[in-house]
Inverse folding.
């Protein structure tokens, strides 16, 4: 386990800024995905939306931004005293997606985006067993996010395409509708609803993302492949 790593004020400010920027990229990708599902009917709309959402993750990895669902892969080696970074990262990710939601609110896109987000999230909140779905869906999403992030490091060693390795897991989770806690914040902003069920859904998807995100790193540690491969 790593010892406590103290940040300078400048390092902390940069960390928060990069987390905010990551939220912006998720907000842009999520908005584009919602537009695709609104303008293109059926599975094709979901598929196109998945690719558009993946561009946000690609930018996050390429520019070394800080995303909550990416950082959780570091938990096995992070050390208890350094876990404060995760909630701080999520807060600034949420501020980033809120910034995009605010800009969209004052644009013509809102007429298409807001109803699409409301339909997506309302269906999840109103289903039977919504809590179990949020947790289980979040776990699967966490696994795929870690697979995407690790592809940036492992793909060259296997002579595979880094771009495809990063994008494909994101397309899969977006197409299947698995729960990404930061993206969920964007959809809830568009929904404009605050309730105990909304808060519970966000928290359960966060826990699910964290559980799923550490599965691959934990197995890698058991195998002795304990190099830090997270962004």
């Amino acid at each position: 386990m790593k010892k406590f790593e103290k940040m300078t004020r400048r390092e902390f400010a940069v960390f928060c800024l990069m987390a905010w920027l990551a939220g912006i990229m998720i907000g842009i990708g999520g908005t584009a995905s919602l537009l695709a599902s609104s303008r293109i009917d059926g599975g094709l709309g979901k598929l196109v939306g998945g690719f558009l959402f993946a561009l946000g993750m690609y930018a996050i990895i390429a520019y070394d931004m800080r995303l909550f669902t990416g950082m959780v892969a570091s938990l096995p080696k992070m050390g208890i005293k350094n876990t404060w970074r995760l909630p701080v990262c999520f807060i600034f990710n949420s501020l980033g997606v809120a910034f995009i939601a605010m800009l969209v609110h004052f644009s013509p896109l809102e007429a298409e985006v807001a109803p699409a987000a409301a339909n997506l999230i309302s269906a999840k909140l109103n289903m039977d067993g919504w809590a179990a779905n949020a947790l289980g869906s979040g776990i699967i999403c966490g696994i795929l996010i870690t697979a995407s992030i690790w592809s940036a490091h492992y793909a060259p060693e296997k002579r595979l395409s880094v771009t495809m390795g990063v994008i494909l897991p994101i397309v899969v989770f977006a197409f299947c509708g698995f729960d990404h806690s930061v993206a969920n914040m964007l959809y809830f902003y568009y929904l404009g609803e605050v309730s105990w069920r909304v808060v519970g859904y966000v928290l359960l998807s966060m826990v699910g993302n964290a559980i799923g995100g550490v599965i691959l790193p934990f197995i890698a540690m058991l195998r002795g492949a304990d190099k830090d491969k997270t962004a």
Notes: The mean pLDDT is 89. Residues 118 and 191 are 5 Å apart (CA to CA). The chain has one domain: 9-222.
